[in-house]
């Protein structure tokens, strides 16, 4: 089974080949916690993450090696399961540095100016109970039980210091981060991830994903994580004729080829027109509006997942895309999301949750994520 190192220059879970399952959790520090509590939490989290990502229990005594008279350190449901490509990625939210003017952890002076709540976007229907948070953890694995085990145990370790604000399960990756991975499909049935930034594109990673080396040591080599919980009105979408679905996306459903022609990996030609003189790729199609050519070259690394959270009272599935993107600056996401304000797809989606976190650089062996911030 695949294992990825926890320690390294960058945190794992960004350029790592996208796994099949997600458990994402946002946490708030509990009231009256101190800077020392935060440091000890990050140390304990990093230690447990360094073990779980290698397929080990959270501690040496683990699920069954401790005293019979105490609750075990590890909850046990991953005993016998392999690491399954588990990655655990930690992020720091704006409120960790400045909570409505309160500097709870002596960090206000180190808040990167760009780390602030995202601006409001046209059509936002955000639920505060599914948005924001002081800290986030993205756990991705090829086995859902392994991802859930990670979040469950990290939440347990946080007891008394931080508690879950909201969390999300995801299945079926909606992107790819290596050329070797096939392009998956989202719940609209279209290939998703075709034009994503790939792990071997070091020029694009340096230009668009990693925070530059001239930034403070805890940030340089990190990235900004944006999460958007996007509800998809799939029952309405499923009544839309195929040609219209394709017009909205700007690509064909079978191959994912741009409507200007070619195959999946042919560059879209936004100038090409059909016999009626109209552009083959609609002006309001998702792919056109999100394309770098129309956004001063802006690109992001997408790493989202499908979700279905049961159903509503009308018997409709509560389905959607848990959109996750990594970028060296929040401005990249903001540019694209503003460009998408006229997206023809908007009739079929609604943004219901949102968050931004700075994912610090990777921890050096034996240290912890964010250590340089407290030096
Ligand atoms: C491309 C679906 C939301 C940014 C695509 C593609 C699909 C798709 C099918 C074409 C294949 C590909 O290149 O991956 C969706 C769905 C969404 C959604 C179903 C919501 C439920 C977003 C959001 C953003 C975004 C919120 C950013 C603000 C992009 C970008 C591309 C893309 C940058 C690549 C454009 C290019 O370079 O050709 N999306 N998307 N998408 N999407 Fe989305």
TrEMBL record:
<keyword id="KW-0456">Lyase</keyword>
<dbReference type="GO" id="GO:0020037">
    <property type="term" value="F:heme binding"/>
</dbReference>
<dbReference type="GO" id="GO:0046872">
    <property type="term" value="F:metal ion binding"/>
</dbReference>
<dbReference type="InterPro" id="IPR006313">
    <property type="entry name" value="EfeB/EfeN"/>
</dbReference>
<dbReference type="InterPro" id="IPR011008">
    <property type="entry name" value="Dimeric_a/b-barrel"/>
</dbReference>
<dbReference type="GO" id="GO:0004601">
    <property type="term" value="F:peroxidase activity"/>
</dbReference>
<dbReference type="GO" id="GO:0004325">
    <property type="term" value="F:ferrochelatase activity"/>
</dbReference>
<keyword id="KW-0479">Metal-binding</keyword>
<keyword id="KW-0408">Iron</keyword>
<dbReference type="Pfam" id="PF20628">
    <property type="entry name" value="Dyp_perox_C"/>
</dbReference>
<keyword id="KW-0560">Oxidoreductase</keyword>
<keyword id="KW-0575">Peroxidase</keyword>
<dbReference type="GO" id="GO:0030313">
    <property type="term" value="C:cell envelope"/>
</dbReference>
<protein>
    <recommendedName>
        <fullName>Deferrochelatase</fullName>
        <ecNumber>1.11.1.-</ecNumber>
    </recommendedName>
</protein>
<feature type="domain" description="Dyp-type peroxidase C-terminal">
    <location>
        <begin position="183"/>
        <end position="363"/>
    </location>
</feature>
<dbReference type="InterPro" id="IPR006314">
    <property type="entry name" value="Dyp_peroxidase"/>
</dbReference>
<dbReference type="InterPro" id="IPR048327">
    <property type="entry name" value="Dyp_perox_N"/>
</dbReference>
<dbReference type="InterPro" id="IPR006311">
    <property type="entry name" value="TAT_signal"/>
</dbReference>
<dbReference type="GO" id="GO:0033212">
    <property type="term" value="P:iron import into cell"/>
</dbReference>
<dbReference type="GO" id="GO:0005829">
    <property type="term" value="C:cytosol"/>
</dbReference>
<keyword id="KW-0349">Heme</keyword>
<keyword id="KW-0732">Signal</keyword>
<comment type="function">
    <text>Involved in the recovery of exogenous heme iron. Extracts iron from heme while preserving the protoporphyrin ring intact.</text>
</comment>
<dbReference type="Pfam" id="PF04261">
    <property type="entry name" value="Dyp_perox_N"/>
</dbReference>
<dbReference type="InterPro" id="IPR048328">
    <property type="entry name" value="Dyp_perox_C"/>
</dbReference>
<comment type="similarity">
    <text>Belongs to the DyP-type peroxidase family.</text>
</comment>
<feature type="domain" description="Dyp-type peroxidase N-terminal">
    <location>
        <begin position="11"/>
        <end position="171"/>
    </location>
</feature>
């Amino acid at each position: 089974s695949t294992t990825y190192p926890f320690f390294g220059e960058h945190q794992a879970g960004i350029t790592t080949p996208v796994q099949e399952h997600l458990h994402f959790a946002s946490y708030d520090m509990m009231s009256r916690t101190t800077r020392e509590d935060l440091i000890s939490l990050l140390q304990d989290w990093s230690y447990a993450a360094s073990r779980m990502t290698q397929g080990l229990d959270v501690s040496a005594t683990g699920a069954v090696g401790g005293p019979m008279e105490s609750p075990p350190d590890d909850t046990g449901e991953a005993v016998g399961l392999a690491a399954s490509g588990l990655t655990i990625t930690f992020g720091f939210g704006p409120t960790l540095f400045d909570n409505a003017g309160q500097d709870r952890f002596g960090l206000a002076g180190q808040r990167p100016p760009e780390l602030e709540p995202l601006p409001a976007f046209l059509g936002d229907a955000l639920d505060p109970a599914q948005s924001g948070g002081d800290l986030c953890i993205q756990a991705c694995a090829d086995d859902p039980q392994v991802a859930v085990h990670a979040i469950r145990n990290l939440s347990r370790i946080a007891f008394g210091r931080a508690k879950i604000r909201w969390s999300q399960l995801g299945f079926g990756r909606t992107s790819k981060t290596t050329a070797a991975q096939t392009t998956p499909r989202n719940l609209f049935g279209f290939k998703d991830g075709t034009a994503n930034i790939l792990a071997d594109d070091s020029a694009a990673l340096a230009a668009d994903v990693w925070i530059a080396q001239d930034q403070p040591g805890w940030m340089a080599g990190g990235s900004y994580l944006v999460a958007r919980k996007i509800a998809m009105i799939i029952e309405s979408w499923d009544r839309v004729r195929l040609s219209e679905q394709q017009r909205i996306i700007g690509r064909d459903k079978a191959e994912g080829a741009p409507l200007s022609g070619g195959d999946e990996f042919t560059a879209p030609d936004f100038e090409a027109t059909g016999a009626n003189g109209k552009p083959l790729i609609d002006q309001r199609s998702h792919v056109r509006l999100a394309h770098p050519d129309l956004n001063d070259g802006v690109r992001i690394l997408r790493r989202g997942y499908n979700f279905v959270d049961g159903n509503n009272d009308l018997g409709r599935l509560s389905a959607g895309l848990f959109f996750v993107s990594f970028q060296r600056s929040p401005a990249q996401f903001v540019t694209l999301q503003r460009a998408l304000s006229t997206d023809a797809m908007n009739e079929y989606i609604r943004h219901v949750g949102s968050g931004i976190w700075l994912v610090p650089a990777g921890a050096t062996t034996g240290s912890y994520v964010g250590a340089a911030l407290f030096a």
